[in-house]
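Quick one, T. Sequence first:
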Amino acid sequence: MSDTAIDLISLGVTLVGLVISWGVYRRRGAASGMRGAALSLVPLAAAMTGVTEFFVDLAFSPVKWAGVGVAGLAVLLYLTSGAMLSRRAGGESGDGGGKAAARGRGEPKAAGRGGKPRGEVGGAQPSGDPEMAEIEKILRDRGIS
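Structure tokens:
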């Protein structure tokens, strides 16, 4: 699409939006009218900065869509690898399997969301940091574990 056509379409959309914003200003007040005017100026600003041309080229170019697909695949692979690494880091404990192995051996699962009976508090290992120990003590005192 040519630059002139993009500019004319953007100008037309902006003018229609400003007219509608004037009506909204008269009916609902200055704040609503100013919000409408701000949104109405976006198409003109996009055309003047070249953003509109980028999106028009994107919409009609299969090569650019392939690039968007490759970028999406890259993001998907990155997020998947992060999930896999965090899962692996959480599973490397020295007790030979952790909670999943304990459930598999037939040990009954404790009631509640946290895996402990309702009245039991604690379970966190005391850390060497005195500030963290103080925070843990406050949380235990308030019944938060």
